[in-house]
């Protein structure tokens, strides 16, 4: 039953897009859905006037969100969502249980806690969102701090 509901899942959110070179924020829409036979995960980003980009992944939404992140950063853009926060971490279990739509917000020296699981595509404050490189460096430090 849960698998059937997940296949029907379609998420539609209004999110801010940050232009790194100017600091300007633009409202956009993020659409997350399964397409085709239900085995392709699609994330689409739409601005007020047009579909800006669409990414597809075979594994889960996390894979699609990471591909979207790379493409946005190449254009000097950051999407202000929880998954792109400095301290966002996605475990294998979180990916499996949410099709990649949930992440932990971790703290240095503390293990990931189920109480700190959030929706990956919920809005996040601009001050919390960083580039992929910065996020990867933080997660490495966090893992080291927990050992």
If you had to describe this structure to a student in words, what would you say it looks like?
This protein has 147 residues and is α+β, with helices and mostly antiparallel strands. The protein has one domain (2-146). The chain is built from 4 helices and 8 strands; from the N terminus they run αββββαββαββα. It has a 5-stranded antiparallel beta sheet. It is globular, with a radius of gyration of 15 Å.
Strand-helix topology:
Blueprint: H1 2-8, E1 10-19, E2 25-35, E3 40-46, E4 51-57, H2 61-74, E5 77-79, E6 88-89, H3 92-98, E7 102-105, E8 117-119, H4 132-146
Antiparallel strand pairs: 1-2, 1-5, 2-3, 3-4, 6-7, 7-8
Quick description:
The chain is of the alpha+beta class. 29% of the residues lie in helices and 32% in strands. The strands form two sheets. Strands 4-3-2-1-5 form a five-stranded antiparallel β-sheet. A three-stranded antiparallel β-sheet has the order 6-7-8.
């Amino acid at each position: 039953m849960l698998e059937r509901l997940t296949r029907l899942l379609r998420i539609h959110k209004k999110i801010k897009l940050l232009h790194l070179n100017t600091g300007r924020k633009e409202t956009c829409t993020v659409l997350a859905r399964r397409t085709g036979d239900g085995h392709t995960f699609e994330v689409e980003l739409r601005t007020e006037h047009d579909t800006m980009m669409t990414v597809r992944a075979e594994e889960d939404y996390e894979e699609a969100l990471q591909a979207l992140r790379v493409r946005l950063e190449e254009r000097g853009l950051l999407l202000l969502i929880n998954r792109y926060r400095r301290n966002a971490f996605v475990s294998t279990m979180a990916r499996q249980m949410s099709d990649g739509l949930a992440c932990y917000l971790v703290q240095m020296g503390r293990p990931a806690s189920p109480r700190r699981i959030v929706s990956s595509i919920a809005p996040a404050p601009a001050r919390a969102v960083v580039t992929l490189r910065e996020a990867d460096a933080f997660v490495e430090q966090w893992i080291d701090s927990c050992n």
